[in-house]
Write a structure and sequence with these properties.
The structure holds 2 protein chains of 2 kinds.
Chain A: H1 3-14, H2 21-25, H3 44-55, H4 61-64, H5 70-80
Helix pairs in contact in A: 1-3, 1-5
Chain B: E1 5-14, E2 17-18, H1 20-29, E3 34-36, H2 38-42, E4 49-51, H3 66-69, H4 75-90, E5 104-109, H5 115-126, H6 138-141, H7 145-154, E6 160-161, H8 169-182, E7 188-195, H9 199-207, E8 238-246, H10 247-252, E9 259-268, H11 282-296, E10 305-307, H12 315-327, E11 336-338, H13 341-344, H14 351-365, E12 367-368, H15 379-382, E13 395-396, E14 401-408, E15 412-419
Parallel strand pairs in B: 5-6, 5-7, 10-11, 10-14
Antiparallel strand pairs in B: 1-2, 1-8, 1-9, 3-4, 7-8, 9-15, 12-13, 14-15
Helix pairs in contact in B: 4-7, 8-14, 11-12
Classes of the chains: A mainly alpha, B alpha/beta.
Chain lengths: ~80, ~425
């Protein structure tokens, strides 16, 4: 799975947590989860749990704390999936 | 500060009607909401009937944001949101507000967090998977979850809390909201209570052998308050909500005024002199009703209707007796008396608020709803009051004042006096 494919799947993971469907459709690696997608910060933990199930990976606490924008989410997911950057 | 407090909005999720129009139709026509539960037969419950609202989540998908709805599993919170937001819009208010509404608070009663959500927590933690619980669990197992969802949606920013007083919870929430407005601390209070009796809660009552078990295949006949054949109560689920408002505040915004809360009282019998954990003591009940009347300046003789607690246990006789002592009225001088539980069962935490919605509807539309399943009024009750005081069909008559009470485990009592709104007081 390359970064573009991870991004497409990540959109599905994020969808239940944002009201901002237009922003989600046009999401880029620079999109911020809290400031742009207006995701409640408490829900970041749910996104991590959903991502673990979606990509069949485990995201440790230290890695999860880095996941604040789309780029860092993909970085962590890709790393956990052992995908070459 | 001694402000007049009026009711300007109603919302209800009841076993015999979701939404005020359906509920009104049902209570006028004596429609039962009690049904047989095949699942309860499989679980070997003694009682296999319950009052369950015909509720699905589509009822609230337009009420709260999709993001909040995703992951919401607690049914009692769903009932509460529906009843509370319906009451809010019924009072002529819009839901959206960018600013906190400092003048409006919320007291919404709840007895127990959602047990199916709790069950998931127990399973996850025991499987060493607590990391997978996520952020949405605490808000659904905390007792105040329902209040948090409601006040968050509407921006309610006066006093916001959840009360818990067993079967007196609903009436007590109304009383506390009333006091908040009466004392000038809030202009408006959204009050009510919610209950979802799932199989776990049901099982705990079933085990006490206090539920009706002889009408499992005649569910609509199972809830029989005041009858000789009453053999225990039928648990029910749902939520009721009212908007209480400072009279002047309501008049300023040209609100429709449904009724007035003339007074009320809450106490406990102290679990002494006949009162126990599970049985109300007569002294506390009589004192509670008497103090509610005194606070209202409505005379006992002016009470047209008693909407009782009357669950369909042996305590019904004692209750009628206590009303008689408190009002000093008996026989043909006794007011009319009815029990909504004959139609919907005993909705526990939600009983007081759903029954209060029925009280207000009877005041607005000037009728007394029928008592179901009263072919055989209990002879001990007929020694206290006239047969025609317990109507089995709809009665249309002038109703100016209604006394409403609920009694809960812990020997806790609450009585409210509702009156028709009259501008001159």
């Amino acid at each position: 799975m390359d970064r573009r494919e991870i991004l497409e799947e990540l959109k599905k993971v994020l969808a239940p947590y944002t009201e901002n469907k237009e922003m989600l459709a046009g999401v880029t690696e620079q999109t911020d989860l809290i400031n742009d997608l207006k995701i409640n910060s408490a829900n970041l933990v749910d996104i991590i749990i959903d991502a673990e199930a979606k990509y069949n990976i485990e995201i440790d606490m230290d890695s999860s704390e880095k996941m604040v924008d789309v780029k860092s989410c993909i970085d962590v997911i890709a790393e956990k999936m052992n995908v070459q950057k | 500060m001694n402000r007049r407090v009026v009711i300007t909005g109603l919302g209800v999720v009841a076993p015999n009607g979701v939404g005020v129009p359906d509920f009104l139709h049902s209570i006028r026509n004596g429609v039962s909401g009690i049904r047989f539960m095949p699942q309860y037969e499989e679980l070997n419950f003694n009682c296999q009937v319950t009052g369950l609202p015909e509720f699905d989540w589509s009822h609230i998908k337009n009420y709260i944001p999709e993001v909040a709805l995703n992951g919401l599993k607690a049914i009692s919170i769903g009932y509460g949101i529906k009843a509370a937001l319906d009451a809010w819009t019924d009072a002529g208010n819009t839901m959206d507000s960018d600013q906190p509404r400092w003048e409006t608070g919320c007291i919404f009663g709840s007895s127990v967090g959602d047990t199916s959500v709790v069950k998931n927590v127990i399973n996850r933690v025991d499987a060493k998977e607590s990391k997978k619980l996520g952020s949405r669990v605490v808000e659904q197992i905390m007792n105040s979850g329902v209040t948090a969802y409601i006040s968050g949606r509407l921006g309610l920013a006066n006093r916001v809390t959840t009360n818990s007083a067993a079967c007196a919870t609903g009436t007590q929430a109304i009383l506390m909201g009333y006091e908040q407005v009466k004392h000038g601390l809030a202009k408006r209070m959204l009050v009510g209570s919610t209950e979802h009796v799932d199989s776990y809660i049901f099982g705990t009552f079933d085990s006490m052998r206090v539920l009706a078990r002889k009408f499992n295949h005649l569910p609509e006949q199972a809830s029989r308050p005041m009858s000789a054949s009453a053999g225990g109560f039928v648990p029910g689920s749902g939520a009721g909500a009212l908007i209480l408002e400072d009279l002047e505040f309501a008049l300023q915004r040209n609100a429709t005024i449904y009724a007035e809360i003339a007074g009320g009282s809450a106490n406990s019998g102290g679990q002494r002199s006949g009162g126990t954990m599970t049985a109300p003591g007569p002294g506390g009940i009589v004192r509670c009703i008497t103090q509610a009347l005194e606070s209202s300046r409505i005379s006992p003789q002016s009470i047209d209707l008693i909407c009782g607690h009357l669950t369909a246990t042996i305590a019904d006789i004692l209750e009628v007796q206590n009303w008689g002592v408190a009002l000093d009225r008996k026989g043909d001088d006794f007011p009319l008396i009815n029990s909504l539980k004959s139609m919907i069962g005993h909705c526990l935490t939600a009983a007081g608020s759903i029954e209060a919605v029925a009280v207000v509807l009877q005041l607005i539309h000037q009728f007394v709803h029928p008592n179901l399943n009263l072919e055989d009024p209990h002879p001990e009750i007929l020694k206290l009051i006239g047969t025609d005081k317990i109507p089995t069909t709809l009665v249309k008559k002038e109703i100016n004042a209604i006394a409403k009470a609920n009694f809960g485990f812990g020997d806790i009592n609450t009585c409210l006096i509702f009156s028709k709104y009259n501008h001159n007081g």
